[in-house]
Amino acid sequence: xxxxxxxxxxxxxxxxxxxxxxxxxxxxxxxxxxxxxxxxxxxxxxxxxxxxxxxxxxxxxxxxxxxxxxxxxxxxxxxxxxxxxxxxxxxxxxxxxxxxxxxxxxxxxxxxxxxxxxxxxxxxxxxxxxxxxxxxxxxxxxxxxxxxxxxxxxxxxxxxxxxxxxxxxxxxxxxxxxxxxxxxxxxxxxxxxxxxxxxxxxxxxxxxxxxxxxxxxxxxxxxxxxxxxxxxxxxxxxxxxxxxxxxxxxxxxxxxxxxxxxxxxxxxxxxxxxxxxxxxxxxxxxxxxxxxxxxxxxxxxxxxxxxxxxxxxxxxxxxxxxxxxxxxxxxxxxxxxxxxxxxxxxxxxxxxxxxxxxxxxxxxxxxxxxxxxxxxxxxxxxxxxxxxxxxxxxxxxxxxxxxxxxxxxxxxxxxxxxxxxxxxxxxxxxxxxxxxxxxxxxxxxxxxxxxxxxxxxxxxxxxxxxxxxxxxxxxxxxxx
Amino acid sequence: xxxxxxxxxxxxxxxxxxxxxxxxxxxxxxxxxxxxxxxxxxxxxxxxxxxxxxxxxxxxxxxxxxxxxxxxxxxxxxxxxxxxxxxxxxxxxxxxxxxxxxxxxxxxxxxxxxxxxxxxxxxxxxxxxxxxxxxxxxxxxxxxxxxxxxxxxxxxxxxxxxxxxxxxxxxxxxxxxxxxxxxxxxxxxxxxxxxxxxxxxxxxxxxxxxxxxxxxxxxxxxxxxxxxxxxxxxxxxxxxxxxxxxxxxxxxxxxxxxxxxxxxxxxxxxxxxxxxxxxxxxxxxxxxxxxxxxxxxxxxxxxxxxxxxxxxxxxxxxxxxxxxxxxxxxxxxxxxxxxxxxxxxxxxxxxxxxxxxxxxxxxxxxxxxxxxxxxxxxxxxxxxxxxxxxxxxxxxxxxxxxxxxxxxxxxxxxxxxxxxxxxxxxxxxxxxxxxxxxxxxxxxxxxxxxxxxxxxxxxxxxxxxxxxxxxxxxxx
Lengths: 480, 476
Known about the structure:
Low-confidence stretches of chain A: 1-81, 101-180
Radius of gyration of chain B: 22 Å
CATH topology of the largest domain in chain A: Aldehyde Dehydrogenase, Chain A, domain 1
CATH superfamily of the largest domain in chain B: Aldehyde Dehydrogenase, Chain A, domain 1
Helix content of chain B: 25-40%
Mean pLDDT of chain A: 75
Number of domains of chain B: 2
Oligomer: heterodimer
Mean pLDDT of chain B: 97
Order of helices and strands of chain A: HHHHHHHHHEEHHHHHEEEHEHEHEHEHE
Number of helices of chain B: 14
Shape of chain A: globular
Radius of gyration of chain A: 25 Å
Protein name (chain B): Aldehyde dehydrogenase family protein
Keywords (chain B): Oxidoreductase
Shape of chain B: globular
Strand order of the largest sheet of chain B: 13-14-15-12-11-16-17
Domain Aldehyde dehydrogenase (chain B): 29-475
Strand order of the largest sheet of chain A: 7-6-5-8-9
Largest sheet of chain A: 5 strands, parallel
CATH class of the largest domain in chain A: Alpha Beta
Largest sheet of chain B: 7 strands, mixed
CATH class of the largest domain in chain B: Alpha Beta
Helix content of chain A: 40-55%
Strand content of chain A: 5-15%
Pfam families (chain B): Aldedh
Largest interface: A-B, 24 and 29 residues
CATH topology of the largest domain in chain B: Aldehyde Dehydrogenase, Chain A, domain 1
Family (chain B): Belongs to the aldehyde dehydrogenase family.
């Protein structure tokens, strides 16, 4: 999109980082937004809206919003505009329109579709939507104030909405105008004239310390399938999210590494059990993420389940394979035993949204390490759903933390982080990997850098297990 | 002085014992070909629990044939698939753990606290551990693609029925073998319940076959030419016979036999903890433990103090209903075993040792023996040399560590030993010199599926548990 400006990394609080929050000006204008000019939409009355002028997102909207906000550099392209478009299309009958009118009346005379494109001024419906997103009761029209107050009730990283514009790979993205017209794929079944209920679409969240926060930056980016169709938004994790994730991972390390190997094995097996329970869901997500056929996706998911089982069986064996009683030439008992190194930062493979990710994550935590994992940038959704599996598997909070976003943005911070012990560069492109390896040299991190593309269907071997182990050798005299 | 506790009986309602059981062969239940059966009783009450099939040669033959038939498919499965079957079995054992624990206590006589807290968790853990090896055999140190041995004939004792079943079946299946298992005559019920669990897990027919019966059934299994490997846990006497029988046949054999473990307490040991360790060593499971610490070797300088504390502790042990959660010592497993214990205890007195047992009210019905300690024992006494396999401790003394080593090793057995000292280097020095396959230091009777277990000399050969436990079931 030509009109997509840069997004500051850390939008300030006063800025409407989240479109739902609204600007001060918007708030000052009060809940009713009737006075705000709408480009291309005709009047602010229901009637005008109801004539159903097709909304053109993008350019006109952006200009309008920029004008409203007076802020620079924020594109209020509403990622939920797709849904609003679809909503709009559904509003075909007078009856439906009337129902919407009642709803929107409180919002000050804007259509749902219009609301969707707004940055600052949010009608009541929008506020309700925001509230629903956060599983709160619907708030009255002072939605903005409510959102501000309730933002703290959410996880620390969340900023209250997922409507920050911008995506990392903006240049290559389909135009927002076209994308915004396409229903989210989840809703593909809900074509006009549908008889089923409207889908309650999942908001994808990060996974930090066992909780599901949004990015503290409030940013999201659209995730599309290989044909460019919109799947959902994913949080665009920030440096602070990475910081929080490392803190959570470090906090979880003593407990996880102190658990018995048997206990860890049981939990990894439980993850396989839980993943198996959702095999259909993951098949769907993996197919969409990777452009795979259902059969191919099924194979991948089954292989991912089997991979968890493989590593569940390693937890109480790696010591026997990688450890040793050493026959030193003296009256000493000498034992070498492997120990987990600590917090491991993992860059998941870009092109294997579940199987590759599991193949990178499981060996790291099997031995007692805790993990901060950066998903595939373009295919993060299966990873974020995997977090739900982890959260229901008795895995202690903080053992695994999952950040969706751009490895080019997050990688350098993790590579330089002084409380990260090791780094897996699988998901980094060659040049980035080299940079990260150099950055990691400062703290002498243990770096695992695969040589070339990996075939995730093959026997993984023990390399990924031993990469994040330290060998401790203890001597004890023997003698009366 | 025994504190008055209210009874805390575990309910029997959780188990559902059938009036009779057949043999589990080829995934099916069938009566013995000859139709013979025998009864299994609750040793705490002499109540008949069920009637069980007596497997004859024809049944053994059928079971071996079923195992042989199932072998190609089972060993041909990818290791990851075998692993998943074994994980299922582990998870099902966990799910049914309480039921199996109660069943075990009813059939065996051991306290519910032990079957619940030791037998069942360890049995599940063994399946869980070996499940994880099934697809990792290339990493086990036996070559890049080790093959199974084939059909394993496995004979297990009555002291830890389900746990011994797990020790046998889990590694065998993980390595791709199929099995015919003969449970002990007096404790078949948990093995039969396990067969039902195999069905619940969807285990392919013929991979596990359970043939109940007495010693003759076991003998038929050992003698069967269709068995590629025999694994036996039981008395040294029977182990000798099996070794004789297999001589020259080329069939593989592992034996886990008796013991007369020495529990060695040095003067610098933490005495209270040592007392607990000694009590655990000989009275856990009524002393029905091959690796029991049945000889206490205490350094002279602390002998009186230790023995006084030991007697005081023994007086607090509760003998009684195995299903009561307060019970420490349950019933002796059978009338035959009780007779043997009584005979040897009588020999102890006759040979001049000093016998002591706390005041103990024993129930009227059932097979019971009070915890007993003999002092003034000489190394030549029967009770110092022969395995009693009951709650009877023989106490000897020593002055120097070298003497302790000599006395501890002065046995044809070599299964276990315990060392109680605060000085690590002395413990390691002793451990290097003791001829025993399992050595516990400042603890006793600790088991883990990752930890190899087995004996020296007449305590048998081969190891169960750990990476080492794979070797007997691989063609290497």
